């Protein structure tokens, strides 16, 4: 039997590639004998029996599609299980069922901060073992200690206190008034700290992130010699603001201090300094988000400042929107941050929240399955033949709500991935086999059928993984300008992603990445991902080889109008309507039913004041922070929506002709266009359904009746996009029901 070891779901692929050769070396053998690995874009498998394979959770789930009982695995070790990512939660639920049939399978769950009792209970009170490890001692100080030392005073505005009772208080403010404030007032009688400290703790501003307090504490720490200082803040804006404050302060001589911001969107070349010892006579100050909690290790840190806040994504089922809010860390987060200070010697951790607030912290953050969309997870359950949603998902350790499951099912039905009985359709089967979200998967399949695959793959990989744009501190405006330059005239963030990859692959010049603030490392990964996606398409028989640039897959790749239409086909029903002023400049956007208002996020090239020839927009990412922001968008004309949207109806009212899509979008038309579009759509849908059911490469160089239908659709979409036809009456085109 093969002995296989599983690394954590969020493990850095580099860590796996680094660790595996070390294990092989310790066994005095070459990699690929008894030790191997498999990650998303690469593998070096060990021999079939008596071997160890390091891999990610996604790899194991993929294996279970063909071998549900993992019959060739004797031992499964899952590390960092406390992170509660969807793949790991999904896997342990499957393993619980597998263990009922395979009593000889040994499953070991590991974590440094695991809630062992909860997992033990889930696995029918299985035994759990605590193995103490050596760590250097870390002194902990809390907000009251920091205030005592720094004498810092929070801003207090009397008008704010008045308005607190006029406006609705937030949940955190109510919690502070009800639970924390009474404890502080009671403790004040013990006089453990100065009277002024208790006064400051009673100020609700003490519960908010205050970068001036961080700066004051930093000054105190730097009065004594020491090694590197690691500061945890919630997000990129906080990193930028604190970085500016430190550099603008005359207390931090650049000859004595090396300030290093750490964020996934910042240039990796600059961040390499994090792991190197500071130059002689300098002290490192690292400003980071929670990425430095577990994902990376900085050996020379002895002081940690924990601001106590974290940016956490969530999913609001009432508005069907992802949210990104700053909230309190969990106890597990705080412990991880503290541990960063004791890697090489004794250290100190300053938590910028009070001991009273600590008592109110959650032990762990909410599991990912309770705070994200579930459409992809449901498809995975379907491909594993786990039955109806209401049969499998209640078996999870923390089952998601019925509302979030219902929203995901509704989307999958609108995408035609599931039928009304929750069965996989032929399209749904293909989408479940692709390692990407269902909407991105549909876009890729349509890109193959319409022979514009290479640009669609560039867009799909960037949306599914991440785009290559970086945000260098102090050069944000220049980076935005360069991004807009790439997208000039296209009215599409998605086309920018294609142009970036196209130029990178053609030029292969480091100066291009430097000039346009792009990560060459990310672009290399995206290129590999495109090749991997081609492998999946080859397995599904939608392409004939692994070359994404093969001419047979790219007959229409130069037709940007079609590429935008295929993007629309995938992203639907994510549609927004732009509201213009008299000059055609967009003031805001709203949902098709007019119930929700959106804004373009600053990262979108569509934020620039410019006329919109069409108010129709499709998008992939919509996140609610202070407002609901659309992060990436493409302006489209009506025909892509009409050809690829759902709930299509052709209506004749006396001498007036209308087409409705998605129940809310209504387009008026002349009789000829009304007839032509209805006939073309019906025949196109028949052919698309046939190609999905019986996959094969569509040869655009070989004329046929079916190809003529697709070409007619492409010609209409292209002519509309470049302004050669006006299919609809301007006044009534976007008359919303």
Automatic annotation (TrEMBL):
The keyword RNA-binding applies. InterPro entries: DEAD-box_helicase_OB_fold, DNA/RNA_helicase_DEAH_CS, HA2_WH, Helicase-assoc_dom, Helicase_ATP-bd, Helicase_C-like, P-loop_NTPase. Residues 213-385 form the Helicase C-terminal domain. Residues 25-132 form the Helicase ATP-binding domain. SUPFAM superfamilies: P-loop containing nucleoside triphosphate hydrolases. Its EC number is 3.6.4.13. GO terms for cellular component: cytoplasm; nucleus. Keywords: ATP-binding, Helicase, Hydrolase, Nucleotide-binding, RNA-binding. Pfam families: HA2_C (PF21010), Helicase_C (PF00271), OB_NTP_bind (PF07717), WHD_HA2 (PF04408). One of its GO terms (molecular function) is DNA helicase activity. It is an enzyme of class 3 (hydrolase). PANTHER family: ATP-DEPENDENT DNA_RNA HELICASE DHX36, ATP-DEPENDENT RNA HELICASE. This is RNA helicase.
């Amino acid at each position: 039997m093969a002995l296989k070891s599983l690394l954590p779901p969020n493990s850095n692929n580099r860590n796996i590639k680094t660790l595996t050769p070390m294990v092989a070396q310790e066994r005095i053998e070459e990699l690929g004998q008894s030790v191997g690995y498999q990650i998303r874009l690469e593998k070096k498998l060990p021999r079939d029996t008596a071997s160890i394979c390091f891999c990610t959770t996604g790899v194991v789930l993929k294996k279970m599609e063909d071998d549900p009982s993992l019959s060739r695995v004797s031992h499964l070790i899952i590390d960092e299980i406390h992170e509660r990512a969807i793949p790991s939660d999904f896997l342990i639920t499957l393993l619980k069922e597998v263990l009922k049939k395979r009593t000889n399978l040994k499953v070991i769950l590991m974590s440094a901060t695991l809630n062992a009792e909860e997992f033990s209970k889930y696995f029918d009170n299985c035994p759990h073992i605590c193995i103490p490890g050596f760590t250097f001692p870390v002194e902990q100080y809390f907000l009251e200690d920091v205030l005592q030392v720094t004498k810092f005073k929070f801003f207090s505005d009397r008008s704010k206190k008045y308005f607190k009772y006029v406006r609705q208080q937030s949940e955190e403010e109510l919690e502070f008034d009800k639970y924390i404030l009474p404890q502080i007032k009671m403790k004040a009688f013990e006089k453990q700290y100065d009277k002024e400290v208790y006064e400051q703790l009673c100020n609700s501003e003490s519960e908010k992130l205050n970068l001036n307090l961080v700066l004051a504490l930093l000054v105190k720490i730097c009065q004594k010699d020491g090694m590197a200082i690691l500061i945890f803040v919630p997000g990129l804006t906080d990193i930028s603001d604190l970085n500016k404050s430190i550099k603008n302060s005359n207390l931090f001589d650049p000859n004595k201090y090396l300030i290093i911001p750490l964020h996934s969107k910042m240039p990796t070349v600059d961040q390499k300094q994090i792991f190197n010892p500071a130059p002689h006579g300098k002290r490192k100050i690292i400003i980071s988000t929670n990425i430095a909690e577990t994902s990376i290790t900085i050996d020379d840190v002895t002081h940690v400042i924990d601001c106590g806040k974290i940016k956490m994504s969530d999913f609001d089922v009432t508005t069907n929107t992802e949210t990104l809010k700053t909230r309190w860390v969990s106890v597990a987060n705080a412990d991880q941050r503290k541990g960063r200070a004791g890697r090489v010697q004794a250290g100190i951790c300053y938590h910028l929240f009070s001991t009273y607030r600590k008592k109110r912290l959650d032990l762990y953050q909410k599991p990912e399955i309770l705070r994200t969309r579930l459409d992809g997870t449901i498809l995975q359950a379907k491909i594993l033949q786990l039955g109806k949603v209401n049969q499998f998902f209640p078996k999870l350790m923390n089952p998601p709500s019925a509302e979030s499951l219902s929203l995901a099912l509704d989307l999958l039905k609108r995408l035609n991935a599931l039928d009304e009985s929750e069965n996989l359709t032929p399209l749904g089967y293909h989408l479940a086999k692709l390692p990407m979200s269902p909407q991105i998967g549909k876009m890729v399949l349509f890109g193959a059928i319409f022979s514009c695959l290479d640009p669609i793959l560039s867009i799909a990989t960037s949306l599914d993984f991440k785009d290559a744009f970086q945000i260098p501190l102090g050069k944000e405006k220049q980076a935005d300008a360069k991004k807009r330059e790439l997208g000039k005239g296209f009215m599409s963030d998605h086309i920018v992603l294609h142009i970036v990859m196209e130029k990178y692959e053609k030029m292969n010049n480091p100066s291009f990445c430097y000039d346009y603030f792009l990560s060459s490392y990310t672009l290399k990964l995206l290129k590999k991902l495109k090749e991997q996606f081609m492998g999946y398409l080859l397995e599904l028989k939608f392409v004939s080889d692994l070359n994404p640039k093969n001419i047979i897959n790219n007959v229409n790749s130069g037709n940007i109008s079609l590429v935008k239409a295929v993007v629309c086909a995938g992203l639907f029903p994510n549609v927004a309507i732009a509201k213009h002023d008299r000059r055609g400049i967009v003031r805001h956007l709203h949902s098709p039913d007019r119930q929700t208002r959106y804004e373009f996020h600053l990262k979108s090239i569509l934020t620039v004041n410019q006329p919109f020839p069409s108010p129709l927009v499709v998008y992939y990412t919509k996140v609610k922070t202070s407002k609901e922001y659309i992060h990436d968008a493409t302006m489209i004309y009506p025909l892509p929506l009409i050809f690829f949207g759902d709930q299509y109806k052709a209506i004749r009212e006396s001498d007036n002709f209308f087409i409705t899509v998605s129940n809310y979008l209504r387009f008026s038309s002349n009789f000829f266009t009304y007839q032509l579009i209805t006939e073309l759509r019906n025949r196109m849908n028949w052919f698309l359904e046939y190609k999905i059911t019986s996959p094969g490469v569509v040869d655009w160089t070989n004329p046929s009746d079916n190809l003529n239908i697709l070409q007619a659709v492409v010609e209409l979409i292209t002519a509309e996009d470049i302004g050669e036809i006006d299919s609809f009456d301007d006044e009534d085109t976007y008359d919303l029901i």
